[in-house]
Amino acid sequence: MKRVLIVEDDADINKALTIRLQAAGYEVHSAADAYVGLSLAVQVEPDVMLLDISMPAGDGFSIVERMRENTSLPDIPFIMLTASKRPEFRRTARELGAVAYFEKPYEAGDLLEAVEDAMLQSPRFSEEGYAA
Amino acid sequence: MTATHDRATAADLAGHVCHEVRKPITAIRAYAELLEDGISGGLNEEQREYVGVVLRGARRLDEQVTCLYELAVLAAGAPAPERGPADLGELCASVQDTTAEAFGARGQRLHFEEATTDVRARVDAPRIQVALARLVRCALQTSSSDVTLVLDRDGPDALLYARTPGSTLPSERFESAFEPFGLEPHESASGLGVELHLVRAAARSHAGDAWLERDERGTRFTLRLPR
Asked: Measuring CA to CA, which of A72, A77, B110, B141 is 20 to 30 A from A6?
């Protein structure tokens, strides 16, 4: 099953994302801060990560940066989510290689489409060629 | 303390408020969409109507918060656009998608007349997309007729306009409509009346402009952008 990791500190939004992705057939893991998010990312090796930006214990960007410091970890495609309109967030996301960037409130259909597109870049997807 | 400092502080405050208010709006929308999509079970017609009201309210609230934030940022000094190459035809198509629900709700249609050749420009695409959507929504809000979105070239510039034969905006308000709060609440998607002001600010930040004019085919809500 295709795995998605959600790192989002707002419990209501985290749960809504989880329900939405599970209903679409994904195995979902979730964390409420960057510290737990990073450890889950290492542990479950998701196919795609959905990362909030402003969170406790580091922002969503720090998860990507910390994972890239460990060269034994695969390069997991990630999507950034934020309630902020700060243009520098969008710029940083682009520079880090985010496959998509969503300002909240997001359109559920667009987000699902972005997750599906991001799956095509998952290292596991290209190795195994499986479907959800 | 200087006026510039005060405006920057107001923009920071607006940014913080916008960030915090968008979280509950996101939750409201996300759960209403889960209900609408029947993920926790099917809805009857009445329940579906109520969920639709919740979703429309959440979208309007988000538009209001976003407009107020952009007004505060403008007052602090318009941010420079982050330009990149953009296909304006694709941008128009995306505006058709984002405004489809608003047109459907009013029983009107948005047509698209694309230029015969590709029209590309170096623009801040997300910002111009929002500006164009607002321009189209203003054409819709002030008319009971269909709206046609036209993309064309005019010398070195790209010309995008929303044309409608039935706009109720009188020509003596064509300039004042671009002032902050220059539109009446019913003429504005957010109800705040600031959309055309924000559209012109986005256009001018690209060294372009926005204006209203009328000819025998109707009223034109125009956005000009250097390519």
From this structure: A72
Nearest by CB to residue A13, choosing from B23, B33, B37, is B23
d(CA B108, CA B223): 22
Residue A24 scores a pLDDT above 90: yes
Do B15 and A85 lie within an 8 Å CB cutoff? Answer: yes
CA distances from B163 to B57, B142, B146, B222 (A): 28, 11, 9, 8
> Which pTM does this prediction carry?
0.84
How many other C-beta atoms lie within 10 A of the C-beta of residue A96?
14
Give A-chain residues touching B62 at CB under 8 angstroms: 105
Q: Is residue B164 a contact partner of residue B178, using CB atoms and an 8 Å limit?
A: no
Rounded Cα distance, A52 and A28, in Å: 15
Cβ atoms of B115 and B154 closer than 8 Å? no
∠ at Cα B68 (B141, B50), nearest 5°? 55
Inter-chain touch A19–B39, beta carbons under 8 Å: yes
Please list the alpha-helical segments (H only) found in B3-117. 3-36, 45-75, 88-106
Residues of B in contact with A19 (CB under 8 A): 34, 39-40
Respond yes or no on whether the N-terminal peptide bond of residue B79 is cis (omega within 30° of 0).
no
> What is the C-alpha to C-alpha distance for residues B84 and B86, in angstroms, rounded to an integer?
6
* In the predicted structure, residue B78 carries a pLDDT above the cut 80: no
pLDDT of residue A132: 44
Contact state of A13 with B30 under an 8 Å Cβ cutoff? yes
Average of per-residue pLDDT across A101-109: 93
**Which of A87, A104, A108 comes nearest B23 by C-beta?**
A104
CB contacts, 8 Å: A85 with chain B: 15, 18-19, 66, 69
CB neighbours of residue A107 within 10 Å? 13
- Asked whether residue A131 carries a pLDDT value surpassing 70, the answer given is no
CA distance A119 to A18: 17
Greater confidence, B1 or A74?
A74
Please tell me the distance from the alpha carbon of residue B220 to that of residue B148, in angstroms, as a whole number.
9
Answer yes or no: do B39 and A10 touch at CB < 8 A. no
